[in-house]
Design brief:
The complex is a heterotrimer of chains A (235), B (339) and C (346).
Chain A: E1 3-12, E2 15-25, E3 30-34, H1 41-49, E4 54-61, E5 64-65, H2 71-77, E6 79-82, H3 94-101, H4 108-121, H5 123-127, H6 138-150, E7 156-160, H7 168-183, E8 187-191, H8 195-201, E9 204-209, E10 212-218, H9 219-224, H10 226-233
Parallel strand pairs in A: 3-8, 3-9, 6-7, 7-8
Antiparallel strand pairs in A: 1-2, 1-4, 4-5, 9-10
Chain B: H1 6-14, H2 18-29, H3 39-62, H4 72-89, H5 94-116, H6 121-141, H7 143-146, E1 152-153, H8 164-186, H9 188-198, H10 200-205, H11 210-236, E2 238-239, H12 246-259, H13 265-284, H14 291-306, H15 310-318, H16 325-332
Antiparallel strand pairs in B: 1-2
Helix pairs in contact in B: 3-8, 3-11, 3-12, 3-13, 4-5, 4-6, 4-11, 5-11, 8-9, 8-11, 9-11, 12-13, 13-14
Chain C: H1 2-18, H2 20-39, H3 41-68, H4 75-99, H5 105-139, H6 144-167, E1 183-185, E2 188-190, H7 192-214, H8 216-226, H9 228-233, H10 238-259, H11 272-285, H12 290-310, H13 318-330
Antiparallel strand pairs in C: 1-2
Helix pairs in contact in C: 2-3, 2-12, 3-7, 3-8, 3-10, 3-11, 3-12, 4-5, 4-6, 4-10, 4-11, 5-6, 5-10, 7-8, 8-10, 11-12
The chains are: A alpha/beta (235), B mainly alpha (339), C mainly alpha (346).
């Protein structure tokens, strides 16, 4: 197992959001986490990424406990988090943003390789390389956020709401790049509002409701599940 | 303990609890109790009363709408100088002059409030600070009017060498300031202030006009400062630009925040023991100049880190809810929401 | 091809000149030249020396405000620490120099002094970050700006009076780091101290700018100031960066304090003037803009020198304040400020 989450409880201050969440992700898998608004999907990712402190439970990455570590140390272990708000450095150029993504990599040659890899995946960013991140369109920013996440050569990529606020065509683009990444052997855990689409592209899924894992299984099975169809697809 | 009881009604009207009333009575009889009936101690008490009143006025802005008026001492100075100059040049009655001081300070408050309207909290504080610096510079350089750093002699209010009448006057002024601020805080306006202080944008969307409330808050708080400045001038009998210095604002600010932001009474309650202790340290350890202010600084830091709510929050969480009914009445009075 | 690039450059330059920032910069230079012609070269020299040093203090202030989000009120006190350290380091060196005029210290003494002041300033910054600001940050980040501001007020009171308590309230100054004749450039006499102070400021500002733009750590500092969560995600440790930022910004103020010891002797509240000058600059130039802060520093310095020159000393409290107030009314985000993080209420 690459990532194992066992009986995780987490939240903000006195407000508990996650209750006994357990899930795991194997190497090379494309896993999604779906659920209604406010179910705690983003909180799950943030807790794994070290931005929210867990109240109890274990998070194991490559068998090592990482629960409660600050975000920067989690990032150094090889987990990259692409947040919903993207958290780009708005007053830096695209190039500088990507360079910051490789902050944990000391080797100059490896940095160059990663940059070439990202520019290869998102040719759009090459044209914009000297533009300030704050002045780009939503879709470009999303690409930049994913690109920055990939710069550190992560083992696991956590992606939160990649389609949020994007036009359908751009959403398609982003999904395609994620697909490409998986084919190249990347492990991705995806949180997404668009349930139909998500279940169509991923291998396996978890359904989160009110902070609990209600269902888990292969994505095609989940897409046919009566409960899922009733709650999310209104069928 | 019946809310219909006339005493309770009066207390409620003045926003006092029985405990507060007791504290006030203690302060009233203090000048005749032996150690405190010496003139120099009464002077300390007067300066404590002045700081207490100023901290109430300061907290009215800082605690309610969450903007630090960093030129507060200068605005007080403006009131003082206005009153003093009017008395000196036009022979105006100082009692009336104090209100003129309040008026000029209120006008300045209107200007500051209007200019800082759109600024984020901390920059509004800076702008008020610059106003204060400019005022102090003016008072220093307009020698023909203020005699500059030499100091301006001011006619005193009472024709006596004793300090006791001044003490009762400042106590009365303190209670007035407190009651005015508390009344406003209890009104609809006070609720609007709170809303603005907590979240400007949310307040705006819920139909509160932040422009009006921020300006009126500044006007009232500055007017109170100007009025107290008039007292300062006619009590000390001498005015120098130094009274407008940033360090004086810091003194008021420290008392207000250690007392407890937003409570109004916290600063007043803490000022008397605090100032007396500080004066005691200063006068007894005069070979260590600055020691009392070192303690001041450390205290402010420690309170801000470990108890940002100050004394009032400590009081509310630990002493406010006694089991005993009589004690409860004593501390909380009959009205639930105030003091 | 080359022609086109040249044309492009010209177009950009013209656009910059027409922008508010460009107009202000050019206006400042023109006014400075007019005043110089009118009153003599010393005005320009004074402006440049004061401006260079104000730039150091203001950059530090902008840095703490941008990265740690602390509106620093105690920044002048690190200036004071710098000048105090310089006084106590330089006095023995000077006595030694008088007895051994040929010693190598005659040349390097001032440099040693300023470096010592810089180190002490940096240590003071780290100590205040670890003992004061980190404590609050770990406890609560609610209402952070106001609370941290009050902490800096407390720090300021503490440091000013600790100075008075331990070192006394008298003026502790020197006549100059270097003895000897002033340098003569086109009939303007510049004392060696002033020339060196300006050179030092220029070197430090340049070095600082290079550090912030091209090094990995400098970029990390900028990253934290732009998006804290984003910085955490890419693996930047916040505690380290914040400690480093405090060390840097306090060291900058201490360098300014030490190299201006011949103009401002060390006494408890010496820091007030640099502090409000730096705040002028930060408000004038907007946040998170090193070059803007440098330019703003020269503008504020010119304003101050001109006020002293034409209206009289003592008015330098009044006129710049009034002007800043006017500027804030018409342009609350500052002249060079980026719109991303201005002084306006969100």
């Amino acid at each position: 197992m690459l990532l194992e989450v066992k009986n995780l409880n987490a939240g903000y201050g006195f407000l508990q959001i996650l209750r006994d969440v357990s899930l795991n992700v194997d190497k090379g898998e494309y896993v999604c986490l779906v659920g209604p608004n406010g179910a705690g999907k983003s909180t799950t990712l943030k807790t794994i990424a070290g931005l929210v402190k867990p109240m109890s439970g274990d998070i194991l990455f490559k068998g090592e406990p990482i629960g409660g570590l600050p975000g920067n140390q989690v990032a150094r272990k090889g987990i990259s988090f692409v947040s919903e708000e993207m958290n780009l450095f708005v007053n830096m150029t695209v190039n500088e943003n990507l360079a910051m993504g490789a902050y944990t990599i000391k080797d100059k040659q490896q940095q160059k390789d990663r940059l070439a890899f990202v520019y290869d995946l998102f040719p759009r960013l090459v044209e914009r390389r000297n533009q300030l991140a704050g002045t780009m369109s939503g879709g470009e920013r999303k690409m930049l956020a994913i690109g920055r996440g990939l710069m550190s050569d992560p083992t696991l990529l956590l992606v939160d709401e990649p389609s949020f606020g994007l036009a359908p065509l751009l959403t398609e683009n982003v999904f395609q790049s994620l697909d490409t990444l998986v084919k190249q052997g990347m492990t991705i855990m995806l949180v997404e509002q668009n349930v139909t689409k998500t279940l169509a592209v991923t291998d396996r899924g978890y359904v989160l409701e009110n902070g609990r894992i209600e269902l888990e299984g292969r994505s095609d099975d989940l897409a046919c599940d009566a409960h899922v169809r009733k709650v999310f697809l209104g069928v | 303990m019946d809310p219909k009881n006339p005493i309770n009604k009066l207390l409620d009207l003045l926003c006092f609890t029985p405990a507060g009333l007791l504290a006030l009575v203690v302060l009233l009889v203090l000048p005749v109790v032996p150690p405190f009936n010496q003139e120099y101690l009464i002077r300390w008490l007067i300066s404590a009363g002045l700081i207490a009143s100023l901290s109430i006025g300061f907290d009215f802005t800082a605690g309610l709408i969450n903007i630090v008026n960093f030129g507060y001492a200068a605005i007080m100075g403006l009131g003082g100088y206005t009153s003093a100059i009017l008395a000196d040049r036009l022979g105006l009655n100082p009692w009336f002059g104090m209100f003129m001081g309040a008026l000029t300070a209120a006008i300045l408050g209107l200007i500051i409030g209007a200019i800082t309207l759109r600024l984020r909290g901390i920059f509004a504080a800076c702008l008020a600070w610059f106003f204060g610096l400019a005022l102090m510079g003016l008072a220093t350089k307009m020698v023909w009017l203020t005699r500059g750093p030499l100091g301006m002699r001011v006619e005193r209010l009472f024709d006596t060498a004793s300090n006791v009448p001044y003490y009762y006057l400042i106590l009365a002024m303190m209670v007035t300031v407190y009651v005015i601020c508390k009344w406003v805080k209890r009104s609809r306006m006070g609720m609007a202030f709170n809303a603005i202080g907590q979240n400007m944008e949310a307040a705006r969307t819920s139909g509160i006009n932040p422009v009006f409330y921020r300006v009126s808050n500044f006007v009232l708080s500055c007017a109170l400062a100007g009025w107290l400045g008039g007292f300062y001038a006619h009590f000390y009998g001498i005015l120098t630009p130094d009274m407008m210095h940033t360090s004086k604002t810091v003194e008021i600010l420290a008392v207000a925040y250690i007392g407890g932001r937003g409570s109004l009474w916290g600063g007043a309650a803490i000022a008397f023991p605090f100032i007396l202790t500080m004066e005691l340290v200063r006068s007894s350890l005069s070979n260590l100049p600055g020691l009392h202010l070192v303690i001041y600084g450390i205290l402010l830091i420690v309170v801000m880190i470990y108890y940002p709510g100050g004394f009032a929050a400590f009081f509310d969480t630990h002493l406010r809810k006694p089991k005993n009914k009589v004690v409860n009445y004593f501390i909380n009075g009959t009205a639930m929401e105030n003091r | 091809m080359v022609e086109q690039a040249e044309k492009h450059l010209w177009a950009r330059l013209l656009a910059w000149c027409r922008s508010l920032a460009g107009a202000t910069v050019i206006g400042t230079i023109v006014i400075a030249l007019i005043v110089t012609v009118d009153r003599g070269g010393y005005v320009l020299v004074n402006t440049i020396v004061t401006g260079g040093m104000t730039a150091l203090v203001a950059m530090g202030l902008a840095l703490t405000l941008g990265v740690l989000n602390i509106p620093m009120f105690a920044h002048g006190e690190y200036f004071m620490i710098g000048s105090l350290t310089a006084y106590y380091v330089f006095t023995p060196i000077k006595t030694y120099m008088e007895t051994h005029p040929e010693s190598i210290l005659a040349l390097w003494g001032p440099l040693v002094t300023i470096i010592a002041a810089m180190l002490v300033g940096a240590v003071a910054g780290v100590v205040s970050e670890v003992l004061v600001f980190r404590q609050l940050r770990q406890r609560s980040r609610e209402n952070w700006v106001m609370n941290s501001f009050l902490l800096t007020v407390g720090l300021s009171v503490l440091m000013i009076n600790a100075h008075q308590l331990f070192f006394g309230a008298d003026f502790k100054g020197i006549t100059g780091y270097f003895s000897g004749m002033p340098i003569n450039i086109m009939d303007v006499y510049i004392s060696k101290d002033r020339a060196i102070a300006f050179l030092l400021a220029a070197v430090v500002v340049t070095g600082f700018w290079l550090f912030m733009t091209y090094t990995r750590t400098g970029r990390a500092i900028r990253a934290v100031s732009q998006d804290e969560t984003g910085a955490l995600i890419v693996g930047i440790g916040l505690n380290g960066i914040m400690m480093l930022t405090m060390a840097l910004s306090c060291a900058l103020a201490a360098i300014a304090g030490a190299s201006l010891l011949f103009m401002y002797p060390a006494y408890p509240s010496v820091g007030l003037e640099p502090l409000y000058m730096a705040w002028f600059v930060v408000i004038l130039s907007g946040l998170g803009n090193v070059l803007g802060a440098v330019m703003g520093a020269f503008m504020v310095a010119l304003l101050k020198v001109m006020t002293v020159e034409y209206i009289g000393s003592g008015w330098d409290f009044v006129v710049p304040s009034a002007l800043i107030i006017v500027i804030l009314i018409f342009r609350p985000s500052g002249i060079f400020g980026s719109e991303v993080r201005g002084v306006l209420d969100k």
